Structure formats: structure tokens, C-alpha cells
Amino acid sequence: MLPAAAIAASAGAAALAQGTPTGPDRVAFPAGFEKDFVLYNVTDRFDTKRARHHFINREALAKAEPGKPLPDGTILVMQDHEVELDAAGAPVLDGRGRMKPTGKTGNVGVMEKRAGWGQAIPAALRNGDWDYASYLAGGQRNPNVRNQDSCFTCHLSRADRDWTFVAYRNVIDGIPKP
Amino acid sequence: MLAGLALLGAMPATAAEIKVTIRDMMFEPAALRARVGDTLVIENTDDTAHQVFVATRGHSIDLGGQKKGEVRRYTVRQAGTFDLECVPHGHMSAKVEVTP
Fold first, then answer.
1. Contact predicate B96/B76, CB 8 Å
2. Do A97 and B89 touch (CB under 8 A)?
3. Is residue A40 within 8 angstroms of chain B, CB to CB?
4. How far does A176 lie from chain B, in Å, by closest CA?
5. Which of the residues A91, A138, B26, B50 has the least number of beta carbons within 10 Å of its own beta carbon?
6. Could you report the predicted ipTM of this complex, rounded to two decimals?
7. What is the pLDDT along chain B (100 residues), one digit of tens a residue?
8. Residue B39: is it exposed, middle or buried by C-beta count within 10 angstroms (0-12/13-18/19+)?
């Protein structure tokens, strides 16, 4: 893992050195996504004690086909939610065993796919034509994320399903069309 | 007496612990059955760190990074079928079928 991460970090630095717009310079915060996008899954994260809500833009979902790469123009959003905790600090679960979000939201991760975007990313790091950005809950750039290398590196493990952990799989599972 | 027997029959079976071992970059077993209330006890025996998660809609979870020797426990509370996966290792998968 470490050598691969080191290679990826080096490659990412190379991309920045070329001055090509990447990350939040072209992956915008999708204002209004909670209303305009489709919530298609929720991941209960027992490690961070957060519920991660997954959204996809309606236009992409309408075109998405099971087993095929997500369409050009797809925007995927991951929004972290704080959850109810018991006195011992463990997440409170509902009758289905799911965490109970409090309504307070945290960081927002965005991945967006546009034809040709991958050309700006070094081959060792490239995730097809996807690019990434991290924002705070209010839509400001996340100052704790210097570049998107960790996104590219982690998603490399799902190259066989369009570099997504959840969306490609869930289109196969069946997400109701908008 | 008959009422008592009927009540006994309606009671859920005792919840079980089901062992899942991560060995040589695979889940063992690769397919398993559980009942609602059972607990999956997942141990990583590899030198490599793993991170168990489920992407299946309605069952999606992430149990976080897991170093060698560490154990994660997850109690299944709804029926259905889902796949255990590993975040950094896309080829790892185990199918879990949960019945009421």
C-alpha cells in the first residue's frame, strides 16, 4: 500500500506542477444537491460514527445502465451526517439496525465525470475521466485537503466498476429512475 | 399448555456468532447464511490491513480499517442478501444471506 500511495502522491504533485486545472478548480460544489439530486444509498460508517449519504444527479441516473460505465456528466456526492450516540458513545440504531442521523451535516465529497478530464491526470493515478473535490458542509473548499491524491489512489481499487465504490454497484442493484 | 408451546415456537432462535476469517486476501467462507440477530465476527489474519464494507443498497456499512489480528463485529438486523467487500482490495468478496 505505501509504495503505491507514494507513487500516486508523486504523480499527483506532477499534475499540479503542470498547472492544469483539477480538483475543486473544475469540480464545483453542486449547490442544492440535497433537493435536486437523488439520494440512492446511505452507508453507516462504524469507524467514524457517521452516516454517509450518497447522491447522484438526476440526468445521469436517467441515462445510467446496469453493468455499463456511468454516463458523461455524472456527479456523485457523498455527504457525512452526524448520528445519535448513546451514553457510551456508540451509535444508536433503529429497528433495522441503521444509524439515526441528527440532521447535522459534515464534509461533502464530490466526484464528477467529464469527457477528456482524465487527460489532465497522470496515468498512474488516473480514474478514467473522473475528478474529485472536497468541500465543507457550507460549500467552502475543504482547507484540510491539499490535493485529491487520496481519492484517486483509493478509487483505483474499483477500476472494474467505473472507479466507484457504490454507484456502479447500486445501478446494478436497481435505483428507481427519476 | 398448548398456548405455552405456541409461544415457545414463536420465540426467535438464540442469536449466533458467525466467524468470518480474512486469510490470503480472501474472505472465508465466501458465502454464508445468517439469521436476523446473528453477529458476524470478522478477523483479519493477513499481514496486510483490510477494510470491510458493504455497498449493497439498504445494507451499506463500513467497518473501518482492520490490521492483522483485529476483529470487527457486526450484528445483522434485517433480512436480505449483501456482499462483504474490502475497500483497498476490489477482488475480495463474500455473499451474506440473512433470513428472518
1. yes
2. no
3. yes
4. 12
5. A138
6. 0.86
7. 444 444 444 445 689 999 999 999 999 999 999 999 999 999 999 999 999 999 999 999 999 999 999 999 999 999 999 999 999 999 999 999 999 9
8. middle
